[in-house]
Fold these 2 entries.
Entry 1:
Amino acid sequence: MIEVNHSKIKETNRKKIIGLLLERNEITKLDISRILDISITTVSTNITELKSEGIVEDVRSLESTGGRKAIAIKLNENCRYSIGVALTPNHIKISLVNLKKEIIDNIRIRHKNNGIEELITIIKENLELIIKKYELNDKKLLGIVFSVPGTVDFENGIIKYAYLLKAKAFNLKERFLYLNVPIYVDNEANLSAYYEFLNRKDMLKNLLYVSITDGLGLGIVIDGKIYRGDNNSSGELGHIKISINGKKCKCGAKGCLEAYTSMNSLMENYNEVAETHISDIYEFEEKYIKGNELAIKVLEEYLGILGIGISNLIMILDPSCIVVGGDINNLLKDKMVLLRESAYKDNSFTNENNCNIKLADFKESYLLGAAMMPIEEFLQIK
Ligand SMILES: [Zn+2]
C-alpha cells in the first residue's frame, strides 16, 4: 500500500513538473521547487530523470534575484512526436505534433475513394516520408492514431464498418505494425470530442460532440474518458430514426437523422429546389455567404431538423456542453442562435442555462484529437 502511494506521489510530481515546463520557456530548478512547493531534492531527481530521457535540457545561466547564477532548463519540445491520420471520403490528412502539441507538419492528399487498399498505399508512402524527414524512431514517435468516419473496435484497431470508405471488418492496425510504434484506430467523432474536451478539461467533466461531415456522428466524453459502449458502437446519432418510411440513408435504412442532416443532404435539399445544381458543399457555402435567399432558406430548414436531433441528445444524456462542428463549421458561424432555438423549442425539461450548445473551434478537431492522443497519454501516465 505504501509502495503504491509512493509511486503515485512520484507520478504526480513528475506530471506537475512537466506541466510547469510546458507553460514556461525557461525556468530554474529553484523556481520549480518554489512554484510547485516540492522539495529541491525531489525536483533535482525528477529533472535528472527527465534529462536522461531527453525530455528536458539545460539552456543557459540565468542571473537569479540573489545575484547567484543558476542554470535554466527547458522542455525539449521536439524530443517526442505523435501523428494523427484522418481517413475521409475525399482526403487523407496527416498531422505531426510535438510534445508541446504544436503542429509541425500537415499533409493533405486528395483521393478518389477507390477502396481501402488504395488509401493504405497513400498513407504508407506519406508516413514513411514524414518518418524519414523528422528522423522518427520508436522512441521519438509516441504513436499514430487513425481517425475513421465509422464504427471501430478501438482495442484491436479494427474498422468495424465505415461505408463512407467502403470498409467493413478491416484490421487497419495490423497494416501499420511494421512501423514498430503504438497504433490506435478511433472514430472521427470520438476524436473530435476528445480534442474539444482537452481544451475545456479544467471546466468540464462531460462533453458531447456532434460531428457533421459526410456523415453525422457523435462523440461522447464522460468523466474525462471517451465512452465507446459495450460493443464499441456508441454514438451512432446519424442512424436514430426521425421518420417512419422517410428518406433513404446511406446505411440502407430509411428515415435516419443522417439522411436529413449530413452535408450531402444539405446539398441535395438545395438541388431539389434550385434551378442550377451544385456538386460541392463549398459551392453551397459560397452561395450562402453571398446572401443567396434559397441557400439561406435551405440552411434554416436544415437547422430545424438538426436541432431536433440535438434536443433528443439533451433529453437522454443531460450534458452541460454540446459542441457542434465539422464541415458545417463555416455555415454555422452566424446561425448558432437558430440552432439553439430549434433544440430547446419543445423541451420543457431543461434549457439553455443548463446545456451550452457551442460551435467547434476547428472544423478538423478529429485530426488534432488523433495527433494529440499519444502526447496526452505520455504526459499523463508516465
Ligand atoms: Zn442510416
Entry 2:
Amino acid sequence: MNAAVSQSASPVELKPRPEAQAVPEPQTKATPALSFDGVTKRFANRTATPFTAVEGLSFDIAPGEFVSIVGPSGCGKSTVLNMTAGLDRPTEGRVALNGEAVTGPNVHVGFMLQKDLLLPWRSILRNVEFGLEARPIGKAERRERALRELARCRLQDFAHHYPFQLSGGMRQRAALARTLAIQPDVVLLDEPFSALDAQTKLLLQRSFARTIHASGVTTLLITHDLSEAVAMSDRILVMSERPGRIVEEMDLDLPHRDDPIARQALPRAREAIAHLFQSLHLAEREA
Ligand SMILES: Nc1ncnc2c1ncn2[C@@H]1O[C@H](COP(=O)(O)OP(=O)(O)O)[C@@H](O)[C@H]1O
Ligand SMILES: [Mg+2]
C-alpha cells in the first residue's frame, strides 16, 4: 500500500460519485478482496412500499487496503457490514469476496463490534482460541495461532488473565487478536473505539493500525468519527442519509499509516477532516 507523501497541493483526491453508476473495472486489475456491485438493500415493513436502506452501492477494496465508511446514523453502514459478512443478502446487486459471491456467513470475514464480546469465564488465551474451536484445527495449532496473535496485539503477558482483569483498551485488543486468529481475508470493524475515553481511543487506534498493517489483512472500518477515519484509512467512502448512497470517495495519500496519532497532527489531515465535515453536511441536505 502506498502511504508516501504526496507532493500535490490538494489535501485529498476527490472523486465525485455519479448516482448508482457501476464503472466497469479494467481487466488487468487484481481481484478485489471485497467488491460491492450495484448493491441495494430493502427491508420489508408494514406499509406496501419496502424501506430502502442502501441504494446502488458500488465499490472495490483491494487486498491489504484499509477503507473507512462514514455517514450519518441510520444511513446503512451496519447493513453494508452485515451483507459483507453474509448475515444479510442484498435485494439487488452483488457482494463478492475475492471474486466469489457472498451467499452466507463464511470463514473469509472477521467481524468486530463496539462490544468486545469476550467470554468472562475464559482466560484471554482461551478466548482467542474460541473462534478456532469450530474449525478443523488441532489443539496444538490452535494454541500456537492464539499465542502468535496475542503477541501481535502485545498481550502475550496477559494470556492467562481473565477479561475482568483487563482495561477496556486491552479487551478490545484481545477481541482483535481473536478476530485475526481465524486468519480472515477481510476484517470488519463496526465502531470498535466508540465506547472508549478519548485518550484510550487514540492509543487503541494506533495499536490497531500497527497490528492490522503487520498482519496485512484487508480492513473495512465503520465510524462516525471523521478524525479517526482520516487517521486510519487509505481511503474513505462517504455515505448520504438514507437511502444510503456513496456520495464521495476520498483517497488519502498521507504518511504515518502505522501511527494515527502522528497522522492526525498533519495539516493535510486536518484539511481532509474539514472537507469531510462539509461533505457530510451537504450529504444531509441532499437527502
Ligand atoms: N433487519 C432490519 N429490518 C428493518 N429495517 C432495518 C433492519 N436493519 C436495519 N434497518 C434499517 O435500515 C437503516 C440502516 O440501518 P443501519 O445499517 O443499522 O444504519 P447505520 O449503521 O448507518 O446507523 C435504518 O433505518 C434501520 O432502521
Ligand atoms: Mg450501525
